Amino acid sequence: MSTQVNFKSINKLAIPATISGIAEPILSITDTAIVGNIPVDGLESLAAAGIVGSFLSMLIWVLGQTRSSISAIISQYLGAGRLDEVKNMPAQAIFLNILLSLVVLLTTIFVIEEIFSLFNASGKILEYCVSYYSIRVWGFPLTLFTFAVFGIFRGLQNTFYPMVIAMLGAGLNIILDFALVYGVEGFIPALYLEGAAWASLIAQAIMAILALILLIKKTDISIKLTFPLNKEIKRLIFMSLNLFVRTLALNAALMLAVREATTLGDRFIGAHTIAVNLWLFAAFFIDGYAAAGNSMGGKLLGAEDYDGLWKLAKTIFKYGMIVSFVLMCFGFIFYRPIGYLFSNEDIVLNTFYSIFYIVILGLPMNTLAFIFDGIFKGMGEMKYLRNVLLAATFLGFIPCLYLGMYLGLGFYAIWIAFVVWMMIRGFSLVWKFRRKFRPLVQNP
Question: Under a CB-based contact definition with an 8 Å cutoff, are residues 354 and 411 in contact?
């Protein structure tokens, strides 16, 4: 099966993937913006939403990595014209994923207070963390199921249906956020932070139902669990395990950043919550092209089309850089108004503005890392991705963070460490890609 690498074919995948990719950060950003403006204990609510959101993102990213593994295997078999050989694998992978998510849910629900005490949360912030997480955590298996279905569609070179699901889920979440956080006079009482948690949970449930319906109606992939296990399940598990380890290292960086910001004080964790939500929003925005690289890269590798793979990497990187430049311009033009979307506390906003320029200037480096990250996932190069992230975190981010803290840089140290982290990731992937595939390319 031939794969055309051009503007139309890339953007047919990238644009819907971009829209669906930003759904999760939109959920978090909506919670952050609305919670940050709660008239009662807004600062404490914002801090709690940021801490819990970071922890939930860690769990989802760690256990949601089967999405990339499913996508890589399906796209490679599609490119090789042998898709029938793996049609029963997705149902087996989804079952394992949901089973693992339930284990995590049941082991964390009884030690919530202890978990968030590790983030230096205390007093009213800790109280809010417990109540917020107690509701949000039940959406965890739903999100992992939805992610797995997205991986199936992505492997089939279809990012349109994930976009539809994500748009409907994000739109519903925004409506429910306003209704449940602030209340509807005469109908719904104001639930404040717990209202934001319920809004996210309901939206996640609707997204999971839509994903199930579209998978059944629009693909030939069966969701019936059958035995024996598919021959590719072993590879999927090992790919996923490498991504689990990788994501643990990734989240070690994110969690340390949250912990250090919390230690600095309430205004710093509030500012960090805003900054990291914008960072993630931009990341998922750029990740649309990474998703296209994931889908097309796996298919091209399966077809052994190395010229097409080389062209894909160059073209998709160019488009990603254009997107990052647009985001940079938007960030600088609306530098101050953006902050007011998230908080009405001047002390939080001034702290956020002091480091926002670092977030903006780091976008091109993020693009380099995310684009090649997506291509490597599509090719199934999970072991190398694991090693790069371990090196970037433990030899780059952590030393840079604590050196900056030792030198008295405070909040700046956190975001300088993020830039160093992404530089190591991006340059390591480019070096590996050139070294491995340039000798195989006939027309570079």
Answer: yes
Contacts of 263 (CB under 8 A, 6+ apart): 120
In this structure, how many other beta carbons lie within 10 angstroms of the beta carbon of residue 183?
Answer: 15
- CA–CA distance, 71 with 236 (Å, rounded to integer): 10
Q: How far apart are CA 280 and CA 277, in angstroms?
A: 5
The whole-angstrom separation of Cα 145 and Cα 142 is: 5
Residue 139 near residue 205 (C-beta atoms within 8 A): yes
* Per-residue pLDDT reduced to its tens digit, 72-121: 888 888 888 888 888 888 888 888 888 888 888 888 888 888 888 877 77
Q: How far apart are the C-alpha atoms of 97 and 95, rounded to whole Å?
A: 5
3-state DSSP: the chain helix, strand, coil percent, rounded to 5? 85, 0, 15
Residue 31: both structure tokens together: 């919670």
Give the residue carrying structure tokens 């790919």.
239
- HEC profile for 271-321? HHHHHHHHHHHHHHHHHHHHHHHHHHHHHHHHCCCHHHHHHHHHHHHHHHH
Q: What is the pTM of this model?
A: 0.78
Write the CA distances from 339 to 48, 256, 274, integer angstroms. 18, 23, 8
Convert the pLDDT of each residue in 342-368 to its tens digit. 777 888 889 999 999 999 999 999 999
